[in-house]
Write a structure and sequence with these properties.
Blueprint lengths: L1 E3 L5 E3 L5 E6 L17 E6 L2 E4 L3 H4 L9 E6 L24 H73 L4 H29 L12 H13 L3
Parallel strand pairs: 4-6
Antiparallel strand pairs: 1-2, 3-6, 4-5
Helix pairs in contact: 2-3
Keywords: Coiled coil
């Protein structure tokens, strides 16, 4: 980069940017108090001293995943003794019209920040996909457990009820009907725990809400029947 030194002579300088930029996995719990420094920032340092704490408001585009970005960039050329002082009078930032500052801001805004935001976006998509897979896996496991319980219930209940009803019939008791009803009621009570599991399984399934006015009820009924027909 060609820059004018303090004497007005134009010379070529190497603008070298060192440091690191990354993205949080999550920002949860990092900012405990309202007055704390922000979690996301990119600081500019020169000769190991902070010159500007956060340039994200300058280089960012208010994208969602920018809130996870954090980094420190070291640009020692900002304090090159042979070049004009580019620090603000309060030493808490740099003059925005200095070509060194403009070059760094342009690089971060056009290249560095978009790259890290894209990586964080890819991670978020991957993480969401993995959570959905795990959720589906648990759902399938619950459905398998439910099927096993239902099969077990059908087998055990039918066998138990058959044996008990046979005993009642063989006794030729005048209260046979009442006793048979009691047997069926008892066997149904055995089934109740399975109902609770079924509710949990059903709760994980997606629901479709059909909203309509009174005039559209017939059409809504047709849509509902089509959904049932297609086992949705």
């Amino acid at each position: 980069q060609c820059l004018k030194n303090k004497t007005g002579e134009e010379k070529k300088y190497d603008l070298i940017i060192k440091g690191w930029v990354g993205a949080y996995k999550t920002t949860r719990g990092r900012k405990a108090m309202h007055g704390d420094f922000p979690d996301n920032f990119i600081s500019l340092l020169a000769n190991s001293k902070i010159g500007e704490y956060n340039i994200l408001p300058v280089v960012g585009k208010n994208k969602l995943h920018e809130v996870y970005v954090v980094g420190q960039l070291h640009v020692d050329l900002f304090e090159e003794t042979g070049l004009p002082d580019m620090a603000l009078s309060n030493r808490q930032g740099y003059k925005t019209d200095d070509p060194r500052y403009q070059e760094v801001i342009s690089f971060v805004a056009k290249k560095l920040l978009p790259d890290i935001v894209e990586i964080r976006t890819i991670y978020a998509s991957y993480n969401k996909e993995e959570k959905e897979k795990e959720k589906l896996k648990k759902q399938e496991q619950k459905e398998r457990e439910l099927r096993k319980l239902v099969d077990k219930y059908k087998k055990e209940t039918s066998g138990s009820a058959t044996r008990r009803i046979t005993e009642i019939i063989n006794q030729s008791d005048k209260n046979t009907l009442t006793k048979m009803e009691k047997i069926i009621e008892d066997e149904m009570n055995v089934f109740l725990p399975i109902v609770g599991i079924k509710r949990k399984v059903d709760a994980q399934k997606k629901k479709i809400l059909i909203c309509h006015t009174g005039d559209d009820k017939d059409l809504s009924d047709v849509i509902y029947e089509l959904l049932l027909f297609n086992r949705v």
